[in-house]
Amino acid sequence: MATKKVIAVDLGAESGRVMQVGFDGSRLHIDEVHRFPNVAVNANDVLYWDALRLWHEIQTGIRLAAPDSAGIGVDTWGVDFALLDRDGRLLCNPIHYRDKSWEGMMDWVFERVPRRELYEITGLQIIAVNTIWRLAHLVKTNSPLLETAHTYLTIADLFNFWLSGSKTCEFTHASTHQIFNPRLNGWDYDLLKRIGFPSQMFPEIVPPGTRLGAYNGIPVWTTASHDTGSAVVAVPSTTENYAYTSSGTWSLLGLELPTPVINDAAYAANATNEGGVNGTWRFLRNIAGMWLVQQCRAVWAEQGKHYEYAELAALAEQAEAFTAFIDPDDDEFYQPGDMPARIREVCVRSGQPAPETPGQIVRVIYESLVLKYRHVLERLLQASGRTVERMHIIGGGSRNALLCQMAADALGRVVVAGPAEATALGNAIVQFVALGEFSSVAEARALLAKDADARTYEPRHTAAWDDAYDRFENLVKGP
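The structure assignment produced for this chain is given below.
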């Protein structure tokens, strides 16, 4: 069987890649065509994504890919959006989800839509990254953008529009914006009205696998445009009793379910419901992930100490275990900055010894991160009534053997690591299903489950980790 190839454009918060994925009838092959940094830009005290630079890099990557590609699909991080004028021109660079414009906006929104009601409407966890706070900020500040904006697009669909000319929003991404109502399966116009945001600019929502048009003769498909949605497509499981963690800048830990879970236990757990492929739902929590290590690494680089991620993991493995813990989701760690200093300050404030060396600091991050995995998983299982036998860690974090082994130890469950390129593979699988190369996502997952590259970690030293978890739970604030 001749190999069919598609292009997977995968944009993360730290970097972007254009990948070529081929399928020869028995195996998926993936090649990195072009990689580039994704650098946020601060201008006039506002943090933006550099959308035009990303568009330039996307075009460069597509030019380097095979000209006979059967499709292009774009996935990106969630929650962010772009505004176009009536002629389809971008009004300004999209505002970054870590911009300070969210500050104070939760209370402003809750005065108009009470917190519990907002959760009941949208099923999304209350977290600083949510789109609704930035929409509310535009309303509160009477932004002139609202006078000229004609079309609202998710960040992924901005690039889909530039590729295809189609002004639509893809389901999995739209579901992350906290203005989508799972029960209505669409935008909640009443919610928009209550916060004062114009509703006429919101386009049609389309499912993954929709053909939007073509770019230089190559069909453009909606994939699961939220990168976590694409990553979950590539979970190599043939059973339902599993949990997943998509590990990158964020760790998104959750379950794949046939319906959303919106109840008191889910609200108490601050769990989120995001759309998946084929009508599935990702019941999950956003956890800070490798963001803390990324920021530490940047600070050390400014000090003239350049560490590769593998080197930091080796230093962490040599450091003493269980000296101190942090809540990775503490608001102290949300903004960019001197993360090593912040971690030390939080440890001292909670009566724990402050980690000093890079190895000690990264050890604290890793241990705290996997203990937060356990904290979140217990609450998701309670709210959903599900049981799980194993955890699949996918994405870049699956390459980190220390983190994966710690996760198995902390969870007391088998961890299956890989594929590392889950997001690009999931992106491509949705295209291949649309092209008829796979009959279903399940068929593609069964193929991935046979891949010898996956690594299994058995839990060890569970008693020591149980003791550590008790200490960690005493420090964690909130759900």
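Interim note for the steering committee: The first strand starts at residue 4 and ends at 11. Residues 252 and 382 are 18 Å apart (CA to CA).
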